[in-house]
Amino acid sequence: MYRKSFIKSGNFPAFCIENEQSYGEQYTGNWWKKVKESIPSVAYILSIILYSDATTTDTLGKGSLYPIYISLDNIPTWRRNKEDAKQLLGYLPILSVKDEREKKSSEFKKLVRETFHNSIKFLLDPLFTNDDDDGDGIDKDAGGTN
């Protein structure tokens, strides 16, 4: 059973939709609320967004790169779409082939998948590396104090 949902986004006025389930920002949802209540009060939820889109690098449109950007879903959508709310992490490697037959081969498709996953792992590894030695999740050397 649905109930009335009120939506307010950015500078737009709130509006009501009868019998419709509406989704807004992730941090306003029930899941977020439940998780926030289940963690210690000094902890925070950090929702990371990764995205990529091909970018043409020359005027003829023949060269392209695949940049990977990172942003946080904790930032409202209207703000997250601004240039200074995202950060370039790196570029995905582009694999080339000799011909169309090689491009369609299962070996090449497997290599593309493995390369993609290894690239993402490499880019995200600093998020999961913990130099902490006492288990509290805080790297004491990261703050510049000895």
Outline the fold blueprint.
Layout lengths: L4 E3 L7 E3 L12 H9 L9 E5 L2 E2 L7 E9 L4 H4 L6 E6 L7 H5 L1 H23 L18
Antiparallel strand pairs: 1-2, 3-5, 4-5, 5-6
Pfam family, one: Plavaka
What would your notes on this structure say?
The chain is α+β, with helices and mostly antiparallel strands. It has a domain of 45 residues. Helix content is 28%, strand content 19%. Strands 3, 4, 5 and 6 form a 4-stranded antiparallel beta sheet that branches. The protein has a two-stranded antiparallel sheet with strand order 1-2. The N and C termini lie far apart (57 Å).
Question: What brief labels describe this structure?
Answer:
Plavaka, 146 residues, 6 strands, two-stranded antiparallel ribbon, alpha+beta, single chain, four-stranded antiparallel β-sheet, elongated
Shape: elongated
Note the main sheet: 4 strands, antiparallel
Helix content: 25-40%
Rg on CA atoms, Å:
21 Å
Q: How many beta-strand segments?
A: 6
Count of helical segments? 4
Mean pLDDT: 77
- Spatial separation of the terminal alpha carbons: 57 Å
Report the order of strands and helices.
EEHEEEHEHH
Low-confidence parts: 1-13
Q: Name the beta content range.
A: 15-25%
Assign the structural class, choosing from mainly alpha, mainly beta, alpha/beta, alpha+beta, or little secondary structure: alpha+beta
InterPro entries: Plavaka (IPR041078)
Pfam family, one: Plavaka
Summarize the structure.
By secondary structure, the protein is α+β, with helices and mostly antiparallel strands.
